[in-house]
């Protein structure tokens, strides 16, 4: 199978491991942008992998918001941030091993602030307290998962080994109290790659927030609705502008992660738009003298989430390959880093030869900057938007990289 999207050109801690705190975080050096500073100490300004005081960072990335009402009605919003317009903050206190994650973006209808302070907020796959439905077990090394949840007039059960099996009363495993007329449950999962795994000054992160509401009608039938948020971003210690090279070239390689909402046939599919994660690698080629860059992404698509009988025929098949290529300009005055767009994006899987309609493609974006001393590393966010009528294709992700 091959699904192709061609696009018109336009010209960024801290970590807690499963067995105990494993810290990483640090404020940006003076003159940084996205990296942001925190803590009033005089410690090493580069302490992303081994922090000694509170650090706060801003992220570069994007978020999605999907509301699903009983009967299939939907409202979808999304937005990609820039280097100078983030909306994302990540704070870490190494003394208490406490994370605070905040993402506020009115354009994407996303408003989240979650503090992970209980050691039990650290979770992983393989036990009864796995991350919630909507988070995949990524294969990128040293990805850490933090999760917190609350419920009103009910309870959220541990994730079933089969999230869509008979043990799950609904996709969020929320059980409404028998005597209650209405209730709700909300769970927020934050994940990130442990700094120091591949990169020393930048890392990627993402989140999923699932909000489930249940109420009984006059006949006692439970009416369900969902508010679902997803996002991915890069964050770290931004390189001061004066420390970025003005000559020479560099190739940066590192991981990328993306969240996608996809449906290529809104006309016929009921529960139409399903989220899917994409995980893979990014290669960023930079010409510091010419102030230009090229970005190449390749990854593997995870299967769709929140399937409850609506069908998966109009999603991207699990295991499909994702590829995208783009380019742009480095301009610290105008962008605070670099900015660009994609020239091509595609999905492919064995056994078919299907090409998406090319006539109505709408847009894309790449936003990023450099991290660490002398621009040793790179990170940013990206978005790819399909534009065919009666389709919803929106891919939003983050990438990092380091020079060898």
Automatic annotation (TrEMBL):
* Organism of provenance: Parasphingorhabdus marina DSM 22363
Q: Where in this protein does the record put region Disordered?
A: 20-50
Q: Give the coiled coil ranges.
A: none
Task: Please report the name of this protein according to its UniProt entry.
Answer: Transferrin-binding protein B C-lobe/N-lobe beta-barrel domain-containing protein
Which domain of life does the UniProt lineage start with? Bacteria
SUPFAM superfamilies, alphabetized = OMPA-like (SSF56925)
Membrane-crossing ranges are none
Q: Name one Pfam family in it.
A: TbpB_B_D
């Amino acid at each position: 199978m091959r699904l192709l999207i061609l696009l018109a050109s336009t010209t960024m801690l801290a970590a807690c491991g499963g067995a105990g705190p494993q810290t990483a975080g640090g404020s940006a050096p003076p003159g940084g942008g996205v990296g942001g500073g925190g803590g009033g100490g005089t410690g090493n300004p580069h302490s992303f992998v081994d922090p000694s005081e509170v650090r706060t960072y801003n992220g570069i990335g994007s978020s999605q918001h999907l509301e699903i009402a009983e009967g299939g009605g939907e409202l979808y919003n999304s937005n990609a941030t820039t280097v100078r317009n983030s909306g994302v903050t990540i704070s870490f206190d190494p003394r208490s091993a406490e994370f605070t994650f905040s993402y506020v973006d009115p354009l994407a209808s996303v408003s989240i602030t979650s503090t992970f302070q209980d050691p039990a907020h650290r979770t992983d796959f393989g036990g009864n307290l796995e991350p919630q439905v909507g988070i995949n077990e990524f294969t990128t090394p040293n990805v850490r998962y933090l999760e917190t949840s609350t419920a009103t007039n009910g309870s959220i059960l541990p994730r079933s080994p089969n999230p869509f099996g008979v043990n799950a009363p609904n996709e969020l495993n929320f059980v409404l109290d028998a005597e209650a007329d209405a209730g709700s449950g909300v769970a927020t999962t934050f994940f990130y790659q442990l700094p120091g795994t591949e990169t020393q000054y930048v890392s990627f992160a993402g989140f999923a927030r699932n909000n489930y509401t249940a109420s009984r009608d006059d006949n006692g039938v439970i009416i369900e609705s969902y508010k679902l948020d997803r996002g991915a971003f890069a964050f770290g210690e931004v390189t001061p502008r004066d420390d970025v090279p003005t000559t020479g070239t560099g190739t940066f390689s590192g991981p990328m992660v993306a969240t996608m909402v996809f449906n290529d046939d809104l006309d016929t599919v009921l529960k139409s738009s399903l989220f899917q994660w994409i995980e893979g690698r990014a290669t960023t080629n930079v010409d510091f003298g010419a102030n230009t860059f090229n970005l190449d992404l390749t990854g593997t698509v995870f299967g769709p989430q929140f399937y409850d009988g609506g069908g998966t025929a109009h999603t991207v098949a699990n295991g499909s390959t994702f590829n995208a290529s783009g380019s742009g300009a480095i301009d610290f005055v105008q962008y605070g880093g670099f900015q660009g767009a994609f020239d091509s994006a595609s999905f492919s899987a064995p056994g078919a030869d299907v090409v998406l309609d090319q006539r109505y493609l709408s847009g894309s974006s790449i936003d990023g900057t450099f991290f660490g001393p002398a621009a040793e590393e790179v990170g940013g966010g990206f978005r790819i938007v399909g534009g065919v009528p009666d389709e919803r294709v929106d891919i939003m992700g983050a990438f990092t990289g380091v020079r060898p």
